[in-house]
Amino acid sequence: MSSPSPGKRIKIQSYKHNGQLHREWDSTTILKGSKTIMIGANDRTRVTESDGRTWMTREPAICYFHTRYWFNVIGMLRSDGVHYYCNISSPFIYEDDMIKYIDYDLDVKVFPDMTYKLLDEDEYNIHRQQMNYPHVLDRILYNNVDILVRWIHQRKGPFAPDFIDQWYERYLTYR
């Protein structure tokens, strides 16, 4: 898998397990691209939902994707601190100038004080039945929720002190 150069603008697409497009972010600036990690940033980018509705993101965000973990992390810079939205998802792939992944509904919301909340288990359970997720997938996803929670507690990866701020400073050099 090739990786984009820093400064390149790409799209991000999320899909559902059945292959249906779920959501697309119009423009994200790559800050780091490698075979295993992608870090990007966007601010006030247009998002298109599967039903055609569009909306704009409200604040700068740093996006963290990894090929070895079944989650991605978005750190949103708000006036009261960094808020994180973590999607439990397939590892990303990069193709056709896009980051692509499968969104598995489960989300972890992390607040500036590093408290967190697991969201959307009801939606996950509905889709798990509708799309016949195999038992092994269910185990992989919940194991990755556990890994993500450990990262939060350990302040690892995108949760490390200053991680989001440092990447945001880099993003500003491309604007």
From TrEMBL:
Keywords: Hydrolase, Magnesium, Metal-binding
Keyword Magnesium belongs to the record: yes
Active site: R23
Binding site for Mg(2+) 1: N87, D103, D107
Pfam families the record matches: DUF402
Cross-referenced InterPro entries: DUF402, FomD-like_sf, Ntdp-like, SA1684
GO MF term set: magnesium ion binding; nucleoside diphosphate phosphatase activity; ribonucleoside triphosphate phosphatase activity
Ligand binding (Mg(2+) 2): D105, D107, D120, E123
Essential cofactor(s): Mg(2+)
EC number assigned by the record: 3.6.1.15, 3.6.1.6
Domain DUF402 as annotated: residue spans: 18-156
Keyword Hydrolase: yes
EC primary class: hydrolase
Catalytic activity: a ribonucleoside 5'-triphosphate + H2O = a ribonucleoside 5'-diphosphate + phosphate + H(+); a ribonucleoside 5'-diphosphate + H2O = a ribonucleoside 5'-phosphate + phosphate + H(+)
Superkingdom per UniProt: Bacteria
Protein task: Has nucleoside phosphatase activity towards nucleoside triphosphates and nucleoside diphosphates.
PANTHER family (UniProt xref): PTHR39159, UPF0374 PROTEIN YGAC (PTHR39159:SF1)
Family: Belongs to the Ntdp family.
Name of protein: Nucleoside triphosphate/diphosphate phosphatase
Organism: Salimicrobium halophilum
Lineage of source species: Bacteria, Bacillati, Bacillota, Bacilli, Bacillales
